[in-house]
Amino acid sequence: xxxxxxxxxxxxxxxxxxxxxxxxxxxxxxxxxxxxxxxxxxxxxxxxxxxxxxxxxxxxxxxxxxxxxxxxxxxxxxxxxxxxxxxxxxxxxxxxxxxxxxxxxxxxxxxxxxxxxxxxxxxxxxxxxxxxxxxxxxxxxxxxxxxxxxxxxxxxxxxxxxxxxxxxxxxxxxxxxxxxxxxxxxxxxxxxxxxxxxxxxxxxxxxxxxxxxxxxxxxxxxxxxxxxxxxxxxxxxxxxxxxxxxxxxxxxxxxxxxxxxxxxxxxxxxxxxxxxxxxxxxxxxxxxxxxxxxxxxxxxxxxxxxxxxxxxxxxxxxxxxxxxxxxxxxxxxxxxxxxxxxxxxxxxxxxxxxxxxxxxxxxxxxxxxxxxxxxxxxxxxxxxxxxxxxxxxxxxxxxxxxxxxxxxxxxxxxxxxxxxxxxxxxxxxxxxxxxxxxxxxxxxxxxxxxxxxxxxxxxxxxxxxxxxxxxxxxxxxxxxxxxxxxxxxxxxxxxxxxxxxxxxxxxxxxxxxxxxxxxxxxxxxxxxxxxxxxxxxxxxxxxxxxxxxxxxxxxxxxxxxxxxxxxxxxxxxxxxxxxxxxxxxxxxxxxxxxxxxxxxxxxxxxxxxxxxxxxxxxxxxxxxxxxxxxxxxxxxxxxxxxxxxxxxxxxxxxxxxxxxxxxxxxxxxxxxxxxxxxxxxxxxxxxxxxxxxxxxxxxxxxxxxxxxxxxxxxxxxxxxxxxxxxxxxxxxxxxxxxxxxxxxxxxxxxxxxxxxxxxxxxxxxxxxxxxxxxxxxxxxxxxxxxxxxxxxxxxxxxxxxxxxxxxxxxxxxxxxxxxxxxxxxxxxxxxxxxxxxxxxxxxxxxxxxxxxxxxxxxxxxxxx
Length: 864
Known about the structure:
Layout: E1 2-5, E2 15-16, H1 21-24, H2 36-41, E3 51-54, E4 57-61, E5 66-77, E6 80-90, E7 95-105, E8 111-120, E9 126-139, E10 142-156, E11 160-169, E12 184-194, E13 199-209, E14 212-223, E15 232-233, E16 237-241, E17 245-249, E18 252-257, E19 260-269, E20 273-284, E21 287-297, E22 316-327, E23 332-341, H3 346-349, E24 364-374, E25 378-389, E26 401-413, E27 421-433, E28 437-440, E29 447-449, E30 452-453, E31 456-457, E32 460-462, E33 472-476, E34 479-491, E35 494-495, E36 501-517, H4 527-530, E37 536-550, E38 553-556, E39 562-573, E40 614-625, E41 631-643, E42 669-678, E43 681-689, E44 696-706, E45 713-722, E46 734-744, E47 749-758, H5 761-778, E48 794-805, E49 809-821, E50 827-839, E51 843-851
């Protein structure tokens, strides 16, 4: 007998089906002889999970003991949902048969589709024909989707799915042609996805790129996208260099606990043996730390230059690195960045990446430990530094150990009687250096010594030819130097009824120096010939009062914008700076006089110098802001020493202040011109003009532009010119151009490039040739130096590349032509091709290859 109950047509009815009742421990509607309409109206809640259904019609077949949901059938069991054109349930076997546009949604959001599914009544076990599965996971602020497909798949207890002749990818199918192979996929004879261990196993697999097989893997396994940490092998890394030979790194990750892990990376090198690396990481309640060890017992040390040019005499080489970050509370934090190496060439020779290495040209690893506190209007920071030079021309004995460096900054409202803002600043710095660092004026070709290897001379450690003031400066003094500084300042602004703004200010600065210079060893005894340096305690007090005056004239021209003309005047009265040239200068050597520093109370960059004398700073600016977003700003001014000693006229032991544009009573003129037609385009020019004849002494001009959304292009280009500063070591002018650009050809394809053009490199080459020829003429040994003009436009550095990026793949290819400083002091270009491929959810791989031939390489005997 067949009862057909048309429950609801073209609308869905949510009901408790009779075949679900036995699973829930309830009473079957069929056993009670209930009619289907009463089934839909029962509305009772039974304990446990129920199988619920929505469909256009329900069909009960008592003869075959089945129930069928037909027409937009949608079944729910717990958090799982099954959708199909029709679903039939066999009460005797407890099996569910779904046909036509079948879609199963898992509790975790994963989706499985197929033409036909045969499942258990809890949807956990069964078979799927024409299987298509998708899993969506949020990782690192992005959505990652993985997809499986197979002619037939088997589900076991909802925890494991097996695919025969299956495929796996993280790429979305083509919208216009879904049958087109994805950009990449793994095809395998068998794929097993274990949801309990979150592991995907591939048996007899092939990697296909755009449908073309490119790699065969008999067997491998990978964590599914839900896994952030899982024990197993990571992506290998390949190495090929002359000194190391060919090799491969095989990192193995060990998930020791949810909050700490260990990565062991053996690297097999055909010429040097086995490089061992291990990294331990741990996250705790208030922070994290890691420790990384590297080491190798070299089998061919002769591949590297002998000391002091390389580590050719070392068998064992290695490094230790560590990083820590800890948050004590919401105001205080502490941490460290540490690097220790057996020799300064190790990290570079073995291509070990380190986040503390500052640049490619000036290679230096900085170790530091710190404690930082931050309040609403206060700041405290205590640090210690150790600098490790990583190039042959770096002399470690000239690198200072700086500990401690303590800074404190506090701002409060002024007392009610005077109002305004009161600021207190304090700094304590202590450093120790073993060897004095001399600098010839102008920079000379004098070196401390020049070892020779295979007939090639390698001059090392620049020094002075003549040790006397005016021909030599001291960039770093040997010995122990400690300074304690404190400054208390006040300022308040008043605006009168005419719109004039008056800002009176005052400050009191005190400094205590404890200097213990070393005049023994190496060339330290020559320092007194360059400068008379204090030994012992020295103090300095600098009180100051001043007034800043501004009178903005504002006019609104409607569509033409708001125009503002603002004259600015500033006067500061204070005594002359004392002990100029008798004290060390470590932190105030970066002096740049331009528009940004014109109205600074003290134009020195650090505490070791204190600007003195009566000075006025005069200037003005004109700006325009229109409703359309146009912005223009023009600024111009100069600084005038009115009385007292000009702090910039008398250079200190490092000659800071001279050739700065401030050394005359009336300074050079400085100006700025900026135009921004909109928020995406900016043109800016900064310049300093000589006070006597208005010639350009310093110029920086350029533009940045982002043309989106009209054109997917971002560009920047800057031209820089600096006149000669012989008293600072620069005997000729410096000129260059930098440019960068990125163009998104499509939303997925992009190209980028950058250029660094040195327009005065030919002058360096000419000076080097002149010095070499002079040395040869005085001592004619070896070959006569030859002059090779590199041309007016010298490409000092460049990079060009492009790539593709989408939801599943990142591929980039870059050519990098970067300047390197070699042991010979000659600047060369290191040419590298870098290929990076990332297949999301599987891993990434980098291939770096040097191209061309370099005549030298830092620490390495030969390079190809």
